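Hi there, hope your week has been kind to you so far. Thanks so much in advance, here it is:
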Amino acid sequence: MPLFLFVAAALAADAPMQAPPPNDADGSTVTSGVLTIDAKLPAEVLVDGVRLAQTYAAAELSFDIVPGDHLLRVYTHGQPHDVNVAIEPGKEVSVVVGRTGVSSEQVDAGPTASGSVPVEFRVLDGMASMIRIAGAKHTIPQGERLTLDLPVGTHPVSVRSADGTIIWASGRLTVDGGESVVVQVAEGRLPEVSGDGRFDPGGS
C-alpha cells in the first residue's frame, strides 16, 4: 500500500503528483488521515523515508496519509529531526517545525458530543475560496454560500485560494451545538464566526 494519497496543499517545491486513493483488501477506499506541517523556516519533509516536500521559506503543508504508524523526518539547516506520528482515519496530526526543534499534536477531527449542526460558509469578497475540513475540500465561488452538516465538536479547517496554493487562514472550527453557525471568509482575513461556534487560528 502506498504511503501517501496525495499532497493537498503545497507551498513547496518538488511535491509529489496527485495519486488515486488506495483500496483496502476488500476493495473499499481507505479513509486517510491528515498530516499538517507548519514550518517556521525552510525544511525538507520525509515520511518513512519518502521525500514529500522541500520548502525554501516558511510554509504550511498538508498531506493525506494512509492510517498507521509513520516516522516523520524533518531536516532543518541540514540536521534531521525525527518524530513518530500515528495517523488515524479522519484525524489530523499537526507538526510545528521551529528553530528549537519539532513538536506534534494529534487533533480529533470527529465529534466530542452527539448531533450535528448546519454550518454555512459565506465568501464575502475577493476571489473564490477553497474550504478544507478534515481532509474534505469544498470550492465556493465569490459571493456564494455552502452549507454543511457538521458533527458537534472540533474540526481542522483551512481557508485557501480556489486552487489551494495560497493559505489565508488555518485553525480549528468548534461547533458547540444548538444554534446554526455562519462562517464568513474573505481573501487574506481570518474567518468570522457567528452562532454557536468559534474559530481558533493556528497550526497546532
Q: What stands out?
A: The first strand starts at residue 4 and ends at 9. Residues 1-22, 107-113 have pLDDT under 50 and may be disordered. The chain has two domains: 4-106, 111-201.
